[in-house]
Amino acid sequence: MDGLHASSGTGAPRVMVLAATNFPWDIDEALRRRLEKRIYIPLPQLADRAELLRICLRGMATAGDVDLDEVARCTEGFSGDDIANLVRCAADCVMRRIRRGRAPDCMPAAERAAMLEEIAAALTRSGIGAGDFQAALQRTNPSCSAADIERHQSFAHTFGCT
Questions:
Q1: In terms of domains, do 29 and 48 share one?
Q2: How open is the CA angle 28-34-37, to the nearest 5 degrees?
Q3: CB-hemisphere CA count at 13 Å for 151?
Q4: CATH of the domain at 53
Q5: How far apart are CA 71 and CA 68, in angstroms?
Q6: Residue 31 has what pLDDT?
Q7: Shortest CA distance to 140 belongs to which of 89, 92, 91?
């Protein structure tokens, strides 16, 4: 890292280091001093969570009883990855509902293929319902605790993150 900040005047290329970490306090102090700009990215706010839900649901339908803004309100403290997990879990609920009582491993290939088509059709036509999201919310928790958030905010305050 030494010498990266100095300009040799010979037109030597500049080097930019871009890095990301979930544990900035574990970065060596000497390296941290050389990383001029530190940016703290907080967890998504309500509008951002609603948009993340919409992005994760691309290619899938939602039933008429789903209010994505309400689902987003129930995801306070969720990260983007937590929201993606929530959508996958809700889609799994649709699959489990269709599969109920049928063991794919014991089915003839044609019947298994028909069931998979039924699942795909349910996800793209009738969609994930409010009950599926409720079940998924009961199974999915935020990955960041209040203590984690406080530690990140404290680091950002101490080391001048923007």
A1: no
A2: 105
A3: 10
A4: 1.10.8.60
A5: 5
A6: 87
A7: 89
**Do both 28 and 50 map to the same domain?**
no
| HEC per residue, 58-81 | CCCCECCCCCHHHHHHCCCCCCHH
Q: How many domains does the chain have?
A: 2
Q: What is the pLDDT of residues 88-118, one digit of tens each?
A: 999 988 888 777 766 666 778 887 788 778 7
| DSSP secondary structure code for residue 43 in this structure | P
Rounded Cα gap, residues 76 and 71, in angstroms: 10
Examine the domain organization and report whether 136 and 155 are in the same domain: no
pLDDT reading at 1 higher than 60: no
Q: Which of 65, 83, 81 is nearest to 73 (CA)?
A: 83
Domain that holds residue 10: 1-43+144-162
Question: For residue range 60-75, what is the model confidence (pLDDT) as tens digits?
Answer: 889 999 999 999 999 9
Q: Which residues contact 136 (CB under 8 A, 6 or more apart)?
A: 86, 87, 89, 90, 92, 93
Give the span between the Cα atoms of 112 and 148, in whole angstroms. 44
CB 104 within 8 A of CB 112: yes
| Residues 133, 66 contacting (CB under 8 angstroms) | yes
